Amino acid sequence: MPVITFTHHKGGTGKTTSCLNSGGSLNTKGNRVLIIDCDPQANATTGLGHDLQEEQTNMYDVFMSGTEGFDPVKLKDIIVSTESGIDLCPSSLDLAGAEPYLYEREDRLFVLKEAIKPILRRYSYILIDTPPSMGQFVINGIVAADHIIVTLDNGMFARTGLDALQTIFSDIAEITGKPVSADVAVITRGRMLQEEMTPGKQISDGFRRIFGLKKDETSSRKQFDEILEFCEKSFPHVFTVPYDNKVHDAQREGLPLSQYAPDSKAAVVYEELAAVIKKWN
Fold first, then answer.
1. How many CA atoms within 13 Å lie on the side-chain side of 99?
2. Are 125 and 23 spatial neighbours (Cβ–Cβ below 8 Å)?
3. Separation CA 69–CA 1 (nearest Å)
4. In 3-state terms, what secondary structure has residue 3?
5. Cα–Cα distance between 63 and 257 in angstroms, integer?
6. How would residue 190 be classed by pLDDT, with cut points 50, 70 and 90?
7. CA torsion sign, 171 to 172 to 173 to 176?
8. CA distance 116 to 35
9. CA distance 113 to 96
10. Which residues of 142-159 are buried (b: 16+ CB within 10 A; e: fewer)?
11. I need a labelling partner for 254 at 20 to 30 A (CA). Which of 15, 27, 88, 197 fits?
């Protein structure tokens, strides 16, 4: 029953999208999947169509459990079923308020890992979505993980971001005494070059002439190729997810691509990623 964490301290790299859609692919194959939303932005929660009620317990309550003045709340107490068939430990903006309290706890790195243990055998796979930060929720997700999936875009700072993430891995390994490394890299929007964009998002030649803009497809391809080459040398598995409007459409409907648009370009890649994850069980 592997625990898989999707992480990158940079925002907009596709952590939530990759978590939801690989989880969806696993779920449609008959596996029981739990997604734990450790991001105060709660994008995984809304991406699975869950409308968190104000009084509903969530990951804030789990992380605050054990803190003086707060009731003990376990993961099993907050799990909800979603329309997709995936179980969810929802998050909320309140979760951001739990982080300062974690710094006061000696066991702060292991809160999530310990919380998962009682429910571990209930699921085929437990996937953790982490926030874009270097804080305690990211660290808890990494410490709790059996496998780590790094997501990145094809921007000019992607390589620098990976170097910074490796520093986080090294620091955690030094503290825990266990090696930390990522098994998979997922490059999102990696093929969104000019000719692959939807017509409405293409920059017309006339617009370019008016403003003196030049097409820069060659440099974009070169940049992407360099990132891809680096990832292929650094990670056992590398996947490139093409730009696909169906990704956002599916999230608006609260469904993974495997159910909303199973034949879409992005869905096919996430099926391939899910096949790798299945080998870890």
1. 17
2. yes
3. 33
4. strand
5. 30
6. low
7. positive
8. 11
9. 19
10. bbbbebbbbbbbbbeebe
11. 197
Residues in CB range of 21: below 8 A, 6 or more apart: 247, 250, 256, 257, 258, 266, 267, 270
**What pLDDT, in 10s, does the model give residues 98-145?**
999 999 999 999 999 999 999 999 999 999 999 998 889 999 999 999
Residue type, 208: R
Query: Alpha carbon of 136 to those of 102, 184, 199, 257: distances in Å?
Result: 7, 22, 42, 30
CA distance 213 to 70: 58
Dist. CA 169–CA 139, nearest whole Å: 9
3-state helix, strand, coil in the chain (%, to 5): 50, 15, 35
CA 124/CA 281 separation, integer angstroms: 8
Predicted pLDDT of residue 11:
79
The pLDDT value recorded for residue 208 is 44
Helices (H), the chain: 15-28, 43-47, 59-64, 75-78, 99-102, 111-116, 136-144, 158-176, 205-211, 217-234, 245-253, 257-260, 265-278
What one-letter code names the amino acid at 165? L
**Strand pairing partners for 151?**
186
Report yes or no on whether pTM surpasses 0.70: yes
H or E stretch at 186: strand 184-188
Between CA 231 and CA 153 the distance in angstroms is 12
End-to-end alpha carbon distance in the chain = 6
* Residue given tokens 């000719």 in the structure block: 195
